[in-house]
Design a protein that fits this description.
mainly beta, two-stranded parallel ribbon, 3 helices, 15 strands, binds N-[(2Z)-1,3-thiazolidin-2-ylidene]sulfamide, binds zinc ion
Length: 263
C-alpha cells in the first residue's frame, strides 16, 4: 500500500477498519477532504441543485457492515437530481451515514478542519450515459453524492422514522422493508453548497464522484446520534463490535479547487 505521503494522512496500518488501501495508488482525486472555506472559489455559473424524489421508490434499510443504507428502486427516473454542477440528471440509488463514537468527530468531510458528529451521503448515478450503477461507479462522471452535515441540536422528526427502524438492522447483513420515505426531508432548504471532483470513501474507492456538500447542517438530537451507535459491524453470533467511527481519514487535496455556489 503506497502511503499518500501526506503527514495528515496517518499510515494505512493505523486504520484496520478499511480493508482496502487507505490511498489508491496514483489516486489524484480521493475523498474525503477538508474544505477550507476561504480557499473555495465562488462560481456564478453553478446552477441551483434541483431535487425531486418519489417516496414510493423507497425499498428497504440494511446494515452492510460499514453503515446502514436506505436503498431505492433506481430502475426509472422517478427519484432524481439535476442542475447544480451536473451536466445531466442522476438517479437516487441509496443514502447512508458516517458517524463517530463521540460527538467530537464522525463526519468524513471537514470545514476549516472542523468535524461534525455525523455526515449523510445521498448517492446518485448517471443513468443517461451508463446502463447500470456498477458501470457508472467506474466512470469519472458516473456518480453524484450529496453530503449533508449533522450537528447536535433539536430532534429531527424526519430522521426519527429511520431511527425507529434501526433495532431491526442491528447486525451486519440484516434488512427490513422500509417504504414511503422522502429523503429530501434530510436536506437543508438553504441552497448553498460546495462542489469538487472526488471519489467514493468506501470500496471500491473509485474516482467517479461529483461531490455536492451542503453548507448548512441539519440538526439531530443526542438520542438520535446514540441510536446510530447501537448498530454493529458484526453479524449475529459474532463477537459484537459497535458500528462507530466508520469514516475514512482525510485525503490530500492535490491539484483540485473546491467551488462554492454562494459568495
Ligand atoms: N461513502 S461513499 O458514498 O463515498 N461510498 C460508497 N461506496 C459504495 C456506494 S457509496
Ligand atoms: Zn458515504
Amino acid at each position: 500500500i503506497k502511503s499518500c505521503g501526506n503527514h495528515s494522512c496517518p499510515h494505512p496500518a493505523l486504520h484496520p477498519l478499511w480493508q482496502s488501501p487507505l490511498t489508491i495508488p496514483g489516486g489524484t482525486r480521493q475523498s474525503p477532504i477538508n474544505i477550507q472555506w476561504r480557499d473555495s472559489v465562488y462560481d456564478p455559473f453553478l446552477k441551483p441543485l434541483k431535487i425531486s424524489y418519489d417516496p414510493t421508490t423507497c425499498l428497504h434499510i440494511w446494515n452492510n457492515g460499514y453503515s446502514f443504507l436506505v436503498e431505492f428502486d433506481d430502475s426509472t427516473d422517478k427519484s432524481i437530481i439535476v442542475g447544480g454542477p451536473l451536466e445531466n440528471q442522476y438517479r437516487l440509488k441509496q443514502f447512508h451515514f458516517h458517524w463517530g463514537a463521540i460527538n467530537d468527530w464522525g463526519s468524513e468531510h471537514t470545514v476549516d478542519s472542523k468535524f461534525y458528529p455525523a455526515e449523510l451521503h445521498l448517492v446518485h448515478w448517471n443513468a443517461v450515459d451508463y446502463p447500470s450503477f456498477e458501470d457508472a461507479v467506474m466512470e469519472g462522471n458516473g456518480l453524484a453524492v450529496i453530503g449533508v452535515f449533522l450537528k447536535l441540536g433539536a430532534r429531527h422528526e424526519g430522521l426519527q422514522t429511520l431511527v425507529d427502524a434501526l433495532p431491526a438492522v442491528r447486525h451486519k447483513d440484516t434488512v427490513i422493508e422500509f417504504d414511503e420515505f422522502d429523503p429530501s426531508c434530510l436536506i437543508p432548504s438553504c441552497p448553498d453548497y460546495w462542489t469538487y471532483a472526488g471519489s467514493l470513501t468506501t470500496p471500491p474507492l473509485t474516482e467517479s464522484v461529483t461531490w455536492i456538500i451542503k453548507k448548512k447542517p441539519i440538526e439531530v438530537d443526542e438520542d438520535q446520534l446514540e441510536a446510530f451507535r447501537t448498530l454493529l459491524f458484526t453479524s449475529d453470533g459474532e463477537e459484537e463490535r459497535r458500528m462507530v467511527d466508520n469514516f475514512r481519514p482525510l485525503q490530500p487535496l492535490m491539484n483540485r479547487t473546491v467551488r462554492s455556489s454562494f459568495q
